Amino acid sequence: MNKMLFLLLLGSGLVKASPHLKNDCLPESSLQFPISTFKSVGASQEMSTDRVIQHFKKVMGPIVKKQMGKELIVKLDWENPKVNASATFDDEDNPVLILFGGMARHPELSEDGLLGILCHELGHHLGGAPKKKRGRSDKLSWSSAEGQADYYTTSKCLPLVLKEPLKSFNFDSVAKENEVQKAMSLCEGQTTCARINLAGLSMARVFASLKYYREFPSLEVNDDFQAWETELGHPHPQCRLDTLRAGALCSVSPLIPFDIMDPSIGACYPNRPESEATNGERPRCWFRPTNL
């Protein structure tokens, strides 16, 4: 991200950092996961979640400092049973990520998936274009679109936070054998890439749990919907998984930031006819390239 350009846009009102606005990872729902009635279980879950958060901050804090000149703040609202997380700013314009306890306790969310949720929220700050709109106006928000935050998750953030694993990793503990095999096949045997795909699968299952869907998200299929224009809100869970999978397969370095105006910078971007997809590009189920 070009910091000077970002500051100029802030000053012009084209984008705005407001501590009163936030972006949620998921639409509002009634799904909740309260703290376990067994105190030892609840305490263990909270400690594990805090350990994940500290690892995330250790890796991504310096990235935020470099790209935004600000401090990364992560707040855990452990007693909140809601399945959600959000991104906002504090009064000093530091990026703030808020994780609700219900999200951390979701049975479909793996440890890597939890890192992915934190990455998604950071993606609202660092994901670049396309940006959301402010209310019903055509003015750009400070926040990247939901699909773009997903793309940031697996193309920029998870490759960095999983480079230094929290602990030794056991594929069998997070996914079925056929899912592990599919992830390894997609990634041509690269284990970190496979972990990112499985983290995306865990996240997509959480997304799907909020509403009834006829088919559960799968690494084996694709969302065939073709968007006429870029969707800035929450795409369908399978579309979100397709985006997470695409980010994991994008060959652009995770250290090359996205641009706040040009969606081609820092991304795998199509430069061929629409019928020929570019490996690792954002799926057309939500993203409409500007050059097609």
Give the helices and strands, then pairings.
Blueprint (H helix, E strand, L loop, with lengths): L2 H10 L10 E2 L14 H30 L4 E5 L7 E5 L5 E6 H4 L6 H16 L4 E3 L6 E5 L1 H16 L15 H10 L4 H19 L27 H13 L43
Parallel strand pairs: 2-4
Antiparallel strand pairs: 1-3, 3-4, 5-6
Helix pairs in contact: 2-4, 4-5, 4-7, 5-8, 6-7, 7-8
Commentary on this structure:
The chain is an alpha+beta fold. The chain has one domain. The chain has eight helices and six strands; from the N terminus they run αβαβββααββαααα. Strands 1-3-4-2 form a four-stranded mixed β-sheet. Strands 5-6 form a two-stranded antiparallel sheet. Strand 3 (85-89) and strand 4 (95-100) form a beta hairpin. The relative contact order is 0.14.
